[in-house]
């Protein structure tokens, strides 16, 4: 009786399942997108079709086919499919899968494919629990993650898997997905509706199909043909792909910094907006602007640092959303300011010398003379303050062996163009 009920439940759930589940591809030819790794003739496609797919980590944003690919691999290799969610699975659950895999392989030669969703949420102990089974070939592991696996998966497990990076679906690819969904619904899909859903889905096939299904149900309840207004009602907010600890964070932060450095205020404010919308900590953004003000602008416009620090203080005292104004002002100021990394290079070069050669003693004339015995050691003798004689004070203050070394070399940009271009040269 249990089997009869199970079969009936499976049939009914397939009929009432959400649209993305009902139209999920079953074979590679039905899969839309990811042609760069699964197109005809690619190594991974051949491996899957021949039933010899390796253990792999599928890395990509939501809705690009990670779970679907895992199921296709299991089907192509005639493997038993075991699925765990890293959010809820325990080490005991992994051990149970491995025990069943051993029984299958020993009993009837059937291999096991273990799919772990959100594998980046497995801690080191959990990842280690599956390591030997993967290494021995007892299970083929497919891990899915939206985070950069090089940050989140331990090196031992990573070295035994092929990392496959999946990409968001293009507008044209989403159009093909939507056509399949419309066919399953028995819906007529105007071109403007396809364009509207695809443009709001953010490259996510699941989101596109969910939006289509809700819009179609909304239109049906109103007794109206499916139209763009129904889509806009169903998709109130475009999904934003952003992670505050992964590669999306680093990519956008890098673009933000380089846009300020490159003198592009429009790009700088765009990336600032993108990170704010993605939920980035405004203090992180403030710190990056303060750093850029010295690293990339420096004394070419010393006011950039004042503006940046003021914005950082405003973030603490005002907070979001109003502090976005202060951050935008500072980012735009730094982007538009004349550029010089002379100050940054000066400290980098000086520290490199100290690390390589140690801390050199300053000349005796510059050493402290305000303690008993200093005079007898010759400390401070012959020192001339520039307030007393500006010409006599023009001596090289660097330690012996470094005299003549120029750390600060004005760039000639902005206010550094007013500096004496030979100020780095000192008398020996």
Care to describe what's here?
With 428 residues, this protein is an alpha/beta fold. The protein folds into four domains: 34-165, Rossmann fold; 171-234, Helicase, Ruva Protein, domain 3 (Orthogonal Bundle), CATH 1.10.8.60; 247-336, Zinc Finger, Delta Prime, domain 3 (Up-down Bundle); 345-418, no CATH class. Helix content is 51%, strand content 6%. It has 19 helices and five strands. The protein has a five-stranded parallel beta sheet, sandwiched between helices. Strand 2, helix 6 (91-108) and strand 3 form a beta-alpha-beta unit. Helix 14 (247-261) packs antiparallel against helix 15 and helix 16 runs antiparallel to helix 17 (303-318). The longest helix has 18 residues, at 91-108.
Question: How are the SSEs placed, and which strands pair?
Answer:
Elements: H1 2-16, H2 19-22, H3 35-38, H4 43-49, E1 56-59, H5 66-76, E2 80-85, H6 91-108, E3 112-117, H7 124-135, E4 139-145, H8 149-152, H9 155-158, E5 162-165, H10 171-185, H11 191-200, H12 205-222, H13 228-234, H14 247-261, H15 265-277, H16 282-297, H17 303-318, H18 323-336, H19 342-357
Parallel strand pairs: 1-4, 1-5, 2-3, 3-4
Helix pairs in contact: 6-7, 10-11, 10-12, 12-13, 14-15, 14-16, 15-18, 16-17, 16-18, 17-18
Short description, anyone?
The chain has 428 residues and is an alpha/beta fold.
């Amino acid at each position: 009786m249990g089997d009869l009920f199970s079969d009936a439940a499976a049939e009914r759930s397939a009929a009432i399942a959400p649209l993305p589940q009902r139209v999920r591809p079953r074979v590679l030819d039905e899969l839309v997108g990811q042609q760069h790794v699964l197109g005809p003739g690619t190594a991974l496609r051949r491996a899957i079709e021949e039933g010899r797919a390796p253990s792999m980590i599928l890395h990509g944003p939501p809705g690009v086919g990670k779970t679907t690919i895992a199921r296709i691999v299991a089907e192509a290799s005639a493997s038993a499919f075991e699925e765990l969610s890293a959010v809820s699975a325990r080490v005991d659950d992994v051990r149970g899968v491995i025990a069943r895999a051993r029984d299958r392989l020993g009993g009837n030669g059937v291999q096991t494919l273990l799919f772990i969703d959100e594998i980046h949420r497995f801690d080191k102990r959990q990842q280690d629990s599956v390591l030997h089974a993967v290494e021995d070939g007892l299970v083929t592991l497919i891990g899915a993650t939206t985070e950069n696996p090089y940050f989140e998966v331990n090196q031992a497990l990573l070295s035994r898997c092929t990392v496959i990076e999946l990409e968001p679906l293009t507008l044209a690819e989403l159009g093909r997905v939507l056509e399949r969904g419309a066919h399953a619904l028995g819906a007529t899909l105007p071109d403007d509706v396809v364009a509207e859903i695809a443009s709001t889905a953010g490259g996510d096939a699941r989101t596109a199909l969910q939006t289509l299904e809700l819009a179609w149900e909304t239109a049906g309840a109103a007794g109206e043909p499916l139209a763009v207004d129904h889509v806009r009602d169903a998709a109130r907010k475009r999904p934003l792909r952003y992670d505050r600890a992964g590669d999306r964070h680093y990519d956008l932060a890098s673009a933000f910094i380089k846009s300020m450095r490159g003198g592009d205020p429009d790009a700088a404010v765009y990336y600032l907006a993108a990170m704010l919308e993605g939920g980035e900590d405004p203090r992180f953004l403030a710190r990056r602007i303060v750093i850029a003000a010295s690293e990339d602008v420096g004394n070419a416009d010393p006011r950039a640092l004042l503006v940046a620090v003021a914005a950082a203080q405003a973030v603490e005292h005002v907070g979001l959303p109003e502090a976005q104004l202060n951050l935008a002002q500072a980012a735009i100021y730094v982007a538009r300011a004349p550029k010089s990394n002379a100050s940054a290079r000066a400290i980098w070069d000086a520290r490199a010398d100290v690390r390589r050669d140690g801390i050199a003693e300053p000349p005796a004339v510059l050493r402290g003379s305000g303690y008993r015995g200093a005079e007898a050691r010759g400390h401070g003798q012959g020192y001339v303050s520039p307030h007393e004689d500006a010409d006599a004070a023009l001596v090289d203050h660097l330690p012996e062996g470094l005299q003549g070394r120029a750390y600060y070399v004005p760039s000639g940009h902005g206010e550094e163009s007013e500096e004496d271009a030979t100020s780095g040269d000192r008398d020996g």
